[in-house]
Specification:
This protein is mainly α. Helix content is about 65%, strand content about 0%. α5 runs antiparallel to α6. It is elongated and about 145 Å long.
Length: about 625
């Protein structure tokens, strides 16, 4: 009889597991219930409770476990009871269950059995890591992030393969970049051959935005080079190196192979915003909302679309919904702040950035944006304070170094500004060490850095260096009128006025309403007029018209013999072409020599008109000897 019972239990257990693997939880629950009746073992009860959780009978699981006091006898049942309370949003009750004395005793016994080698079952290691992960999620929900960080670290310490704990630490920015690397190094100290693969996979997924640079696949990961997660890590590196084209090619290929790849969608949205692809962003947001209305990234995509088309109220509406679905989704908070900053609402923007900084203590971007907002409001001490805090988290981020340089420049500390700009440029040049020229390895996003460095050298009266950086900035962004104005200004300071006029004209051709270029152009032209002669070989004495005598005769005959014609008539009269000399049209010898058409310039005509206006015109036209045909 006992043998038949054991055989029946084995059959029922296999049947239950088969249905669970095929996601037929109702069938699995039915046979699990019969199995529990037959054996009444803790492991079979634990399996039945997992079926109940999958069928979303959360309160039933909690009451079933507590009625039999299994939470004090079996660690897995204790975990499921706490999980059900968490899913019912009873965070404090769930946390009380996880931190109870009986639960701590069960956890200590399980960890001791793992360390002592008495129990090598991988399922026990998974249960303990799941226990710590749940504890971390609850602590994050009640905004106890320090305790949550420790819980996730404990989960990785027990089970290095627990990607959920690593993902929470990484995505929620609970650790700085240095702390993440230290955590992986501690995991690598374990004597386990598989940890080399774990370390390599986790290391390639660490923070990439705090310092630009290339990424190389370790030898352990060469066989995974076509894996979407590794390709996504490469795309992220290209994105933070400001190489949007390469990153977009990779993400687009991933999206074609695996449409709506969850880890890739967020980066793809960011690329669409940077590249201003409004139509594609609209299609993606519409598709996400249609298929995943409960996912925060879907509403984040819609908010980014409205942000891109400059409808900030609609953007904030959808971004707020994204943050309601997931309070810890950092990108939505940052774009929420950007929407206020776009409308010059600095106070509201800083309030959102402060909230983001609280939710992401290991991320320096909210602090960077707060410093930028203070800089825009000319509150330089606070700007420098937040920017230095951001630099403590990411000491090698060129964007932070650049903003520190801007703050120092506004404080008129040009030596310190030069230092920060030079450090930022050094970090940026590290992206492409093989680049010969500075601009050949950069994208147009770094044009502002080169321009600001040029302004710093201009303030230090190092005009040649300033001019060199302005021209390199012009290579990155050839249609920036501010760069042309800056070059023209430096050339005017170098007393190269003719070249300065040329660059100011180019600036005004790109931006006609530029008041600075207009003012400087007028100033430089006035200096040119006072310093340079109108045209060469101009006589020292200003010529004047003399009185025309009525009795003067021309050598070729009387005035009546000379028929004056218009320019068109003269061109058609072959008898006049080539026969009119200067002496013939200048009987009294009073006019200055006349240049030919190839010699006459605008300066000649303008000066002649000025001389004529200054001549006395008190006489009437009848005093002149005119052709009889003109008197009629």
């Amino acid at each position: 009889m006992c043998m038949m019972t054991e055989e029946t239990a084995v059959v029922l257990r296999e049947t239950m597991h088969c249905y669970m693997q095929e996601q037929q939880f109702t069938s699995a629950l039915y046979w699990a219930d019969k199995l529990v009746t037959l054996t009444n073992s803790h492991e079979d009860i634990y399996a039945m409770c997992k079926c109940l959780v999958q069928c979303k009978h959360y309160y039933r699981v909690y009451k079933y476990i507590f009625s039999r006091k299994l939470h004090t006898q079996h660690l897995g049942c204790c975990y499921l009871g706490a999980l059900c309370q968490y899913l019912l949003n009873n965070y404090q009750l769930s946390l009380d269950l996880l931190t109870a004395d009986e639960t701590e005793r069960l956890v200590d016994q399980a960890v001791f059995s793992l360390k002592g080698g008495t129990n090598t079952d991988p399922k026990l290691r998974t249960v303990i890591s799941s226990f710590y992960c749940l504890k971390g999620r609850i602590q994050e929900s009640i905004e106890n992030r320090e305790e949550a960080t420790e819980s996730y670290k404990n989960a990785l310490k027990v089970d290095p393969f627990c990607y959920e704990a690593f993902k929470a630490l990484k995505d929620h920015h609970l650790l700085t970049g240095i702390e993440e690397k230290n955590l992986l190094n501690r995991l690598a100290n374990k004597d386990d051959v598989d940890l080399s693969l774990v370390k390599s996979l986790f290391a390639i997924d660490l923070k990439k935005y705090d310092r630009p640079g290339h990424i190389e696949l370790p030898t352990e990961l060469v066989k995974f080079e076509k894996n979407n997660d590794l390709r996504l890590a490469l795309a992220e590196r290209h994105y933070y190196n400001c190489d949007n084209v390469t990153a977009f090619e990779i993400t687009s290929e991933i999206m074609r192979e695996d449409p709506l790849h969850h880890n890739c969608v967020t980066l793809h949205i960011s690329l669409l915003v940077d590249m201003k692809e409004t139509i594609e962003l609209f299609r993606l947001g519409h598709s996400l909302v249609e298929h995943y209305p409960e996912w925060c990234v879907a509403w984040y995509a819609v908010g980014c679309y409205y942000f891109l088309i400059n409808k900030q109220d609609c953007a904030r509406k959808h971004l707020s919904k994204a943050t309601d679905l997931d309070r810890l989704f950092g990108p939505a908070w940052l774009v929420f702040g950007h929407s206020f900053a776009q409308e010059k609402e600095h106070d509201q923007a800083m309030a959102v950035y402060l909230k983001a900084a609280q939710l992401m203590p290991g991320c320096h971007l909210p602090l960077l944006y707060i410093g930028m907002e203070y800089s825009l409001t000319n509150n330089l001490p606070f700007a420098e304070k937040f920017l230095k805090q951001a630099r403590k988290i990411a000491p090698n981020d060129p964007f932070v170094l650049h903003e520190l340089g801007v703050t120092a420049f506004n404080n008129q500390d040009y030596t310190m500004a030069e230092k920060y700009y030079t450090l930022a440029l050094k970090e940026v040049k590290a992206i492409n060490d093989s680049a010969g020229e500075v601009s050949s390895g950069l994208t147009d996003k770094w044009e502002a850095l080169l321009n600001n460095l040029g302004h710093t050298y201009r303030k230090q009266e190092r005009y040649d260096e300033a001019l060199a950086y302005f021209k390199q900035a012009l290579v990155l962004s050839p249609l920036n009128p501010s760069t042309y104005s800056s070059i023209g200004f430096v050339l005017s300071l170098m007393n190269d006025l003719s070249s300065a006029v040329e660059y100011f004209h180019r600036a005004l051709s790109l931006r006609p309403e530029d008041t600075f270029s207009t003012t400087m152009l007028n100033e430089v032209i006035e200096r040119l007029m006072s310093e340079i002669e109108p045209f060469p070989d101009y006589p020292d004495e200003i010529p004047r018209f003399g009185a025309l005598g009525g009795n003067t005769t021309m050598e070729s005959g009387t005035t009546d013999d000379l028929n004056l014609n218009t320019s068109s008539e003269m061109g058609n009269d072959s008898s006049l072409q080539g026969n009119i000399s200067t002496s013939e049209l200048n009987p009294a010898g009073l006019l200055t020599p006349i240049n030919t058409d190839s010699q006459q310039t605008l300066g000649d005509a303008s000066n002649l008109s000025i001389d004529c206006e200054m001549e006395s015109i008190s006489r009437t036209p009848t005093d002149f000897d005119l052709d009889p045909s003109l008197k009629d």
